[in-house]
Amino acid sequence: MNNLGQKSDRPMVYPQNMLTNMITNLGAEILFIVVLIFADYIPNTTVVVVILFGYAECIHHTMDGIRMYRRYAGKGKRTIYGPGTITSYAGLIQLSTYGLVWLTKQNIAASEVFAGVGIILFVVIGLILIPFIISRRVQSKRFAFSSNGYFEKYEPMQGGKNNG
Fold first, then answer.
1. Cα-trace Rg, the chain
2. Is Transmembrane helix a UniProt keyword of this protein (predicted)?
3. Which residue has the higher pLDDT, 18 or 113?
4. What is the pLDDT of residues 88-123, one digit of tens each?
5. What is the distance between the alpha carbons of residues 87 and 97, in angstroms, rounded to a whole number?
6. From CA 68, how far away is CA 82, in angstroms rounded?
7. Domain residues of the chain, as ranges?
8. How many other β-carbons are positioned within 10 Å of the β-carbon of residue 37?
9. Cα separation of 25 and 16, whole Å?
10. How many CB atoms lie within 10 A of CB 1?
11. 151: number of CA atoms within 13 Å, CB side?
């Protein structure tokens, strides 16, 4: 429910919706597959991408969890758990930490770090922020979420499918 954290007045519609999720998830998946195809040629850069992605996801889901806990504690929410939290804590943070330890034992050039940071910045700007900006401006109901998913128990749907 990133939209609630961004104070959207129509959280089922914008800025995150099914279309932005498809762009972000499919785009990042394709990019990460391409990076892995070339991992033999750019191992340090690949590991930098893994490290940054894993730690960023963990931080993001923790912050979202805290925000949602505060919002829904009075409605029965007892933990900071939310969609993506388990993946972040049970897989990504360990992989990132292992990558960081591995990276400290390598001869790494600054250009490899910058390349990894550049790839992550492309994901954040090109595959998340730009689609969100467009979605916020267009506010199309065509790709609106049809359910609150996990958060339905704390915030039942109001106003029909597109909440607005």
1. 18
2. yes
3. 113
4. 999 999 999 999 999 999 999 999 999 999 999 999
5. 14
6. 8
7. 27-142
8. 10
9. 12
10. 23
11. 25
Beta-carbon contacts of 84 under 8 Å, excluding residues fewer than 6 positions away, are 57, 60, 61, 64
Name residue, tokens 């990558």: 99
**Least confident piece of the model among 20-24, 41-45, 113-117:** 20-24
Q: Which two tokens stand for residue 133?
A: 């900006």
Contact 132, 68 (CB under 8 A): no
Are the C-beta atoms of residues 146 and 17 closer than 8 Å to each other? no
Residue type, 16: Q
Could you tell me the two tokens for 74? 């009075």
Burial 69-104 (b: 16+ CB within 10 A, else e): eebbeeeebeebebebbeebeeebbeebeebeeebe
Identify residue 83 by its one-letter amino acid code: P
CA 144 to each of CA 16, 19, 78, 96, 162: distance values in angstroms, whole numbers, following the listed order: 8, 8, 28, 33, 6
d(CA 106, CA 133): 39
